[in-house]
Specification:
133 residues, DUF2283 domain-containing protein, five-stranded antiparallel sheet, UCP021389, DUF2283, mainly beta, 2 helices, 7% helix
C-alpha cells in the first residue's frame, strides 16, 4: 500500500491521501481560499480525495511522510461519527469549513498554520484506508 502521507524533499511539497491513489481520479484542484499553501483535489463526484501542501505548511508534514492510517474515528453529539487527522493536540483550534462535511483546523486566526482536518461524511471514505480497522 502506498503511504497515505507523502513528502517530496526536492519540491518541498507534501500530500495527504483520503482515498487510495488512483490515476486519473482527480478532476478538479482548488486552492483553499484562506491558505494558498493548500490545494484541494476532488474526484468527479465532488469528493475531496486529497490535499497537496506547499510552502511552510508542508514543513510540518515531513515527520508524517510514509505513514498510513493517520486518521482517528470520533463521535460528535450533533454530527455523528467523523474521521479526524491532527498533527498536534491543542485545547482550541480555529476551524474553517471549506466544503460540506469537511472542516480544516488551524492553530492561528490568520489560517496560516494548518494542523488537521475532519471528514464528516464518513460513508464517502474507507475506514480501513483512513483508520486501519
Amino acid at each position: 500500500m502506498k503511504a497515505q502521507v507523502t513528502y517530496d524533499d526536492y519540491a518541498g511539497m507534501g500530500y495527504i491521501y483520503f482515498t487510495p491513489p488512483t490515476p486519473g481520479c482527480v478532476v478538479k484542484t482548488v486552492e483553499l481560499e484562506v491558505n494558498s499553501d493548500l490545494m484541494l483535489d476532488f474526484d468527479r463526484n465532488g469528493r475531496l480525495v486529497g490535499i497537496e501542501l506547499g510552502g511552510k505548511t508542508s514543513d510540518r508534514l515531513k515527520e508524517w511522510a510514509g505513514r498510513n492510517h493517520i486518521f482517528e474515528k470520533h463521535f460528535h453529539h450533533d454530527k455523528g461519527y467523523f474521521f479526524r487527522f491532527m498533527m498536534t493536540d491543542l485545547p482550541h483550534t480555529l476551524q474553517y469549513a471549506v466544503v460540506e462535511h469537511v472542516v480544516f483546523h488551524f492553530k492561528d486566526d490568520r489560517y496560516n498554520d494548518f494542523i488537521g482536518i475532519d471528514l464528516y461524511d464518513i460513508d464517502q471514505y474507507s475506514e480501513s484506508f483512513l483508520v486501519g480497522n
